[in-house]
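Following up on my earlier thread - several people asked me to post the actual chain instead of describing it. Fair enough. Here it is, all 134 residues.
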Amino acid sequence: MTSAVRHVLEVAFGRVDVPCRSGWNLLSLSAHPSTANTNIFDNGKQLGGNQPLLLRILAPLVPSHPPEGGADSMLYATTRADVVHGGYYGLEKGMTGPPAQAKLPKRAQDEAVAARLWETAELRTGASVDEFVK
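Reply from S.P.:
Thanks for posting it. Predicted structure:
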């Protein structure tokens, strides 16, 4: 699965309103950290700790923010009083800037896809929200 497809699915999953339909006083939302300038690629298991030459050359050109800012959009989404159900939060300028409500990718706005994604997750995990609401 490509990173772009996985990203759209994550956002769609966060838009499903199952907790609200179940009577829970919860918000379902998504947050994207963007690119934090960490050493994850240097130490990443998938790369065996050795960064490919092309990645070493191109990585400094990708807009990013310092490692300590990597959780900013997630902290924003989980602590602000003005977040909304189904909201998507990221960085104001996409890859940099302060956290803010972000524009939903068009493909993540399909409610039928989001509902089907939630149903598939319940089927695959064998767990259902209904089991916990009584």
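The mean pLDDT is 76. That should answer part of your original question.
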